[in-house]
Amino acid sequence: LVVLAVLFVTIVLVDRLVFERYMTRILARIPEADRAVFKTRYRLLRRAVEAMIVFVGALAILFSFDQTRAAAQTVLASSALLGVILGFAARSTLANFVAGVVIAVNQPIRLGDRVVVGDAEGTVEDVGLTYTRLRTPDNRRVLIPNEELASSRVTNLTLIDSVSLAQARVTVPVAGARARQRRLP
């Protein structure tokens, strides 16, 4: 338990010190679009590591007490059956988690992007492990499950293609057009 607590505190301190000191300098040097990509992936990685530390800590707690050690050994011995049961029970949660990883890797949306997902439109505030949070123009918060986000059509209004179509309207006075028509053979 002490080792896990020290490990958790060390990871949090290193995260804070490294991110505050070095990452802010690195982020200042890269383009704005890449900053959002980096921040989104970093945030997801940090949350996944924290979840793993909590999971290992819970197992360590179960194994440290005599009353729960036998139960913990039984649970781990039948982990295949437990995995199947948990898989069925937490299908949507696991699907949202996997979709969150896919979103973080593929980056169809990033922090700060303006997007339309289904009937919701807003700015991406957070891409979590299971939900993505949007802030709508009327200042409402919309939580979209990552599974829905990964499987539905997403319109990213922030990403701009380097090639775009431009239209220009030119208004010509009627009198000038008639005069030109008369001069033409």
Structure description:
The protein is an alpha+beta fold. It is 63% helix and 14% strand. It has helices at residues 2-29, 32-64, 66-77, 79-89, 91-106, 146-151, 174-183, and strands at 114-117, 120-127, 131-135, 141-145, 154-156. Helix 1 (2-29) runs antiparallel to helix 2. It starts with a helix and ends with a helix. The relative contact order is 0.09. The model has no long low-confidence stretch (mean pLDDT 77).
Provide a compact summary of the structure:
By secondary structure, this protein is α+β, with helices and mostly antiparallel strands. Helix content is 63%, strand content 14%.
Low-confidence stretches: none
Largest sheet: 5 strands, antiparallel
Strand segment count = 5
Instruction: Kindly state the percentage of residues in helix.
Output: 55-70%
- SSE string, helices as H and strands as E: HHHHHEEEEHEH
End-to-end Cα distance, whole Å, is 96 Å
* Mean pLDDT score: 77
Q: Which percent range describes the beta-strand content? A: 5-15%
What gyration radius follows from the Cα positions, in whole Å? 27 Å
**Structural class, from helix and strand content?**
alpha+beta
List keywords for this structure.
185 residues, alpha+beta, five-stranded antiparallel sheet, 7 helices, 63% helix, elongated
